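Exercise: predict the fold of this chain.
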Amino acid sequence: MDPAESQNQIHELISSLYSPIADFQTLLSTLSAPLSSLGLLPPQYNHLLSSASDLEHSNLNLIPKKHLPQIQRALLTNVLPTWYPILHENNACQLVEQYFCPDATHNALPISGEIALLAHATFVSLATLTEQAVTLLEKLVVRYPIDRLFHAIFEGDNTKAARRSVQWEDYVRDLCTIPVKVANAFGGQVPRLLENAVYFNTLSLRTETLIFSLSLKSVNLPGTSHSPFPISFFFLIFSSEILSALCYLINKFVNIGIFPPRPPTSRSQPSFFLSSMPHVIERAPSKSTNKSYSDLWSSILVTVPTVALHSILSSLFSSLLNSRQPSLTLDDAPSTRVLIKREAEILEGVIGRITPSSEREELWECATGIILNMSKEWTESHARLFVCWISGSGTDINGNIYFFLIRHW
């Protein structure tokens, strides 16, 4: 098809979505042809491409970044308010969903990730969200979590490298705006998955999963079966843009309060570490051969701004012990010693082992500063935990000396 003719047909298509649609069959064929051109039309709808004009439209040269936002906006503002009940009654909502969050059959396709990224921007740009838009938004955040879209941005065509960081930052901003956007539209009737705490706790879980998956991939450099380089070398030299992207995300979480200094007392307040702690425990060095997980966390922590680092470590420290056994005492019972050792392994798994003379001196200064300057926040159990961690021995010793050590660092 001639490029000029294709462009004219695309403009006609978009215009038709903003105009009154004559009947249901016309709507179905209008929705099916562009999906076919993108390779996203579910097989059960192939019969809708019956006429010559439908087949011609199915070969349109659609440019997702240029044309999809216009189509998405038309569907949300003009088509769905009128046709959603009929689409739902005829089990045809999937045709609309494919324009925002393609189904599981098509999820792995590069085009699907690109469409999901565009959909986030489209939802956030709307002046108000309708009920149908929120239903689609729920499906979008479930089908295309942050780890899926991270890979959509940073894997693939190297010619896109120059704009990856901008695309990632735009996506993170859109992602963090969604709960406020939905709350402003619906007040107290927010769907559970989009409630502030539920949404950000789920986002925290998926972010931890992303960090873990990246740590697994990074131990094997291209062309090698087992890399001799430490993880910090890989990320700082070979994938500095990936480390920068993770730091941007974590710093954004700090700014919106996902790393609270104390365990949340309200169900509306999210907490990164309280929500992801079960996963973090499983990734601890003693429970996994993946030491690179700890190294990647350390690389992130030494790269984020100092203010963010203080918030992250404060939140991590306060999430330990209190979240599982608030009245732990300084005794030598085996169960107590096991718990202290396990919690110390969590600190080692996220921060690593640090000493005043280590290459992570900034981590040492920040961690010990928090421990000493916020002493009123910590119980005797925390003091015991901190010394067990910093000693690097992996074992617990008699508790009576802990406060002495803490006070004389």
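Check your answer against the key: Residues 16 and 30 are 8 Å apart (CA to CA).
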